Fold:
Amino acid sequence: VQLQASGGGLVQPGGSLRLTCAASGGDLPINIMAWYRQAPGKQRELVAETVSSGTLSGTVNYADSVKGRFTISRDNAKDTVYLQMNSLKAEDTAVYYCYAEDTGNYYRSPRISWGQGTLVTVSS
Structure:
């Protein structure tokens, strides 16, 4: 799966941004789509994820640090995931990466793909 992320940029504290990630080229349905981020000098961390199949279908998870401020949504028909980020803080500054994991099947395990990353800078 190829992932194309967009929507990053510079925003003032308290502002909003919307990230978009479009998937293409997969041979199996995508199960999990998510956003991770990596701030300078820190490890990559999960921001939000959405699960579309299996026993966890419909599950949405958020990092505690973004609950109530960020919303992940997904258009399954377009294999596209969005991250609406509101009330942004300086500590949200990071490179945001799109993540996708397909369902796998009898012949192979689920395959993971990463997007190229998009920089979000929150600064006045």
User: Anything to note?
Assistant: The CA atoms of residues 51 and 59 lie 5 Å apart. The radius of gyration is 14 Å.
